[in-house]
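Page 37, continued from 36.
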């Protein structure tokens, strides 16, 4: 015969002499096929059990089903055994082997294959605490959450039902078919799949590894934003910066402020304050004080321009620079409007008003090619096409000049040793004796010329075919006749050190970075004191010490001052391992009227970081 709550209440009153019992809240209602009273073993309790239908409890918006239960009616408390199922509204369902519930405090505890489900995710754990007043659940014995796209595991977790948010700590792992995310602390929103990382975290996939200490990741949209100690490692590149954006769908990444892109295969580094990396195209775009450093064994080469682009596979990298290009190495420097460097062949092409300084020689022309030996990484030769002009400042103030249609130079041990000029060549040369006394000024025309250098000075000039020249005493050649047609001395522009890469450029103010806000500080799930005792009934399986948050078993708080959300000053674009004194505040000015390459924007839009729901 099916018993009801009213029948058992009537029976209890008869047995107990109409005892009046205090109630601290709405009483738990129940329905059971079989009810037994065993005062000797369970004083003051009903033993409820299933015959055809499970025992059912109802209280303040929840329903609980089980095969057997012990109900302490006066204390508004029950223990449920076997195939336990708890439902809150139409959104939360929890199953377990055992559960207990205090109707006065609305505090529940479940153990044994606990499974809690909402419309977007499910939680599996061994034991679970559930505070209905706070609308929070908590586990510390390890749990697994299954989302529509991923599986999340952690040792400690807290679930906020109203926000549909999980807070994880200690050994957090998200497994997705395309990647694995590991973190020490993470908030996850089951409604939209958004994850916020607040400690050392990695996202590892076949194509890349991401590291950050504060970041956001959309586990369903596969996009992310990282703002503290962040880096993205590809197979042959590493991207670092104050703010990084990542899109797994398009294999695209971008960075803002203090950017460093390292080519791990070709030993080169590119720095700037905005970068874009396209993994599928194996290309990098970087601007805002952009500088590329080729880390050669004997002599590193620095290229600075408004915009740098690196394309091609590692075995055939191409570097392109646009607008106000500046090049520096220990024994050579140069400037041009644009530059094209092919690492496989060692060819560097300088285009648009180029100038190269090799020791105390200035070379200009319409186009200049520099060729290095890819095996020894030393300069091999140079070529100047159309309007080739070489100037060397004389020790007493004059200028030795050589010009022709084309020029070819040969290096040995990184020093210019021979220059050949062809087609309509002219020279103007200050001739001196061994003591340095001026003998005269030689002006000569010929079909071609070969110049030989020793100790960085002109040792000999060999005029070839159709030679026509005159040596003028100094007083017979007026100053306005001492410059060949096309003379343009640009010595004041010469780069004499790495610092000159940014000479004359204005201070640069970094783009403000939108940080990822820290979560609001939460009170502990337990209060860690005697006040927790009210959550329990004296008949509970738990004891007060079971409600104490132990060291390592809670989600730690975070301090705001541990992270710079917006960087105030740029860091040196060339690291201390390469340069200790590079000016920190410089900017890039557009070079000429060449069309500017299209960019995707200045920084990551704040819209890509959804706001967290307020508690």
């Amino acid at each position: 015969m099916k018993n009801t709550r009213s029948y058992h209440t009537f029976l209890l009153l008869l047995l107990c002499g109409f005892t009046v019992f205090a109630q601290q809240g709405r009483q738990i209602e129940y329905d059971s096929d079989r009810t037994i009273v065993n005062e000797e073993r369970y004083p003051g309790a009903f033993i409820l059990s299933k015959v055809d239908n499970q025992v059912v409890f109802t209280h303040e918006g929840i329903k609980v089903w089980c095969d057997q239960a012990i109900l302490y009616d006066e204390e508004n408390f029950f223990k449920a055994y076997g195939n336990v199922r708890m439902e809150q509204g139409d959104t939360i369902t929890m199953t377990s082997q055992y559960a207990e519930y205090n109707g006065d405090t609305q505090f529940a505890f479940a153990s044994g294959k606990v499974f809690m489900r909402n419309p977007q995710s499910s939680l599996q754990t061994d034991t679970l605490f559930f505070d209905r007043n706070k609308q929070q659940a908590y586990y510390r014995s390890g749990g697994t959450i299954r989302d529509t796209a991923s599986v999340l595991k952690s040792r400690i977790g807290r679930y906020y039902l109203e926000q549909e948010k999980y807070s994880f700590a200690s050994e957090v792992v998200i497994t997705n078919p395309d990647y694995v995310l590991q973190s020490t602390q993470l908030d996850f929103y089951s409604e939209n799949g958004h994850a916020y990382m607040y400690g050392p975290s990695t996202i590892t996939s076949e194509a890349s590894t991401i590291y950050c200490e504060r970041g956001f990741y959309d586990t369903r949209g596969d996009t992310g934003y990282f703002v503290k100690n962040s880096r993205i490692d590809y197979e042959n590149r590493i991207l670092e910066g104050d703010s990084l954006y990542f899109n797994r769908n398009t294999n695209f990444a971008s960075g803002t402020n203090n950017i460093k892109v390292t080519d791990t295969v070709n030993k080169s580094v590119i720095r700037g304050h905005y970068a874009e990396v396209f993994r599928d195209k194996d290309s990098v775009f970087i601007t805002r004080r952009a500088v590329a450093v080729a880390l050669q064994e004997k002599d590193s080469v620095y290229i600075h321009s408004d915009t740098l682009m690196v394309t091609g596979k590692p075995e055939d990298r191409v570097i392109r620079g646009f607008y106000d290009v500046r090049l520096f190495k220990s024994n050579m420097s140069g400037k041009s409007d644009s530059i094209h460097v092919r690492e496989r062949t060692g060819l560097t092409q300088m285009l648009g008003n180029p100038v190269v300084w090799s020791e105390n020689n200035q070379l200009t022309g319409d186009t200049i090619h520099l060729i290095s030996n890819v095996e020894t990484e030393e300069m091999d030769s140079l070529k100047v096409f159309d309007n080739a002009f070489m100037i060397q400042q004389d020790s007493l103030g004059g200028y030795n000049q050589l010009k022709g249609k084309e020029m070819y130079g040969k290096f040995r041990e990184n020093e210019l040793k021979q220059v050949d000029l062809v087609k309509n060549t002219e020279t103007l040369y200050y001739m001196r004796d061994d003591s340095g006394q001026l003998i005269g000024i030689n002006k000569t025309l010929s079909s071609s010329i070969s110049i030989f250098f020793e100790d960085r000075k002109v040792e000999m000039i060999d005029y070839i075919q159709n030679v026509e020249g005159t040596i003028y005493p100094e007083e017979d050649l007026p100053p306005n006749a001492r410059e060949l047609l096309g003379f343009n001395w640009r010595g004041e522009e010469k780069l004499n050190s790495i610092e000159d890469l940014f000479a004359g450029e204005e201070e640069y103010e970094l783009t403000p970075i939108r940080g990822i806000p820290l979560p609001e500080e939460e009170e502990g799930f337990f209060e860690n004191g005697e006040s927790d005792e009210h959550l329990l009934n004296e008949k509970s399986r738990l004891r007060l010490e079971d409600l104490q948050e132990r060291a390592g078993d809670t989600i730690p708080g975070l301090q705001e001052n541990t992270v710079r959300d917006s960087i105030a000053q740029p860091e040196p674009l060339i690291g201390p391992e390469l340069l200790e004194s590079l000016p920190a505040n410089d900017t890039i000015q557009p070079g000429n009227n060449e069309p500017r390459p299209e960019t995707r924007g200045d920084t990551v839009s704040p819209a890509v970081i959804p706001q967290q729901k307020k508690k």
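The radius of gyration is 39 Å. Flag for discussion at group meeting. The CA atoms of residues 33 and 53 lie 7 Å apart.
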